[in-house]
Design the sequence.
């Protein structure tokens, strides 16, 4: 079983749609959780940190469920510019910061 | 400012060459990272430095040799690489923000080994 699992997609949605991505992690000692966005041939860019209390940034909402070891990202009112790969990232503090990426979920938003 | 810089942007090298990748951050971040990313795959962690000491080596072959000369700089020395080592090499640095170790990535060095 992979340490961080994501549905690779692709998700093909029309503009204005709401889309949800999910991610599960296997190590209960995981301490930091993030969603990153990566455009083709670019570096990953931090989208949001993820907390148990949930957090929202404009059209984006992220949620962490520690009991189920599950992370989610909701994008409302999708824009063409949201087309990218969304990476779920988990960090374990093992004396160093072991960082594990999910495989990424590819999103295509179409006009 | 959350800028991490990397040089060079592109590098072509032969299997007998020795080259180095450089990474720099001036944000006072305490940890720095090297990742390797192949096309259509997520980044894979190679090395982590915490307070200038190597804290994680993810069983990376010895032809990759990291070095952290000071808290702002991270190098990756390359020697006798193989064609399958061609990839995007990403550097990142991190700091603790709101209880989470938050990483910021540089633009990467695209490496081609011939």
Sequence:
């Amino acid at each position: 079983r992979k340490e961080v699992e994501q549905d690779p997609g692709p998700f093909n949605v029309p503009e204005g749609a709401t889309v949800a991505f999910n991610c599960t992690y296997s190590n209960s000692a995981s301490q930091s959780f993030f969603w990153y966005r990566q455009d083709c041939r670019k570096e990953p860019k931090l989208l949001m940190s993820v907390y148990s209390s949930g957090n929202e940034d404009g059209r984006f909402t992220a949620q962490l469920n520690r009991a189920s070891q599950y992370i989610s990202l909701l994008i409302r009112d999708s824009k063409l510019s949201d087309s990218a790969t969304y990476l779920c990232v988990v960090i374990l503090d093992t004396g160093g910061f072991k960082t594990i990426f999910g495989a990424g979920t590819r999103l295509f938003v179409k006009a | 400012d959350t800028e991490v810089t990397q040089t060079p942007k592109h590098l072509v090298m032969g299997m007998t060459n020795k080259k180095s990748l450089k990474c720099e951050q001036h944000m006072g971040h305490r940890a720095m990272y090297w990742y390797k990313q192949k096309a259509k795959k997520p980044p894979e962690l190679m090395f982590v430095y915490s307070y200038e000491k190597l804290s994680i080596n993810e069983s990376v072959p010895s032809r990759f040799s990291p070095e952290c000369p000071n808290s702002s700089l991270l190098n990756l020395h390359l020697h006798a690489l193989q064609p399958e080592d061609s990839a995007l090499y990403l550097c990142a640095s991190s700091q603790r923000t709101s209880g989470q170790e938050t990483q910021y990535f540089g633009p990467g060095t695209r490496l081609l080994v011939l």
Q: What stands out?
A: The mean pLDDT of chain B is 95. The two ends of chain B are 37 Å apart (CA to CA).
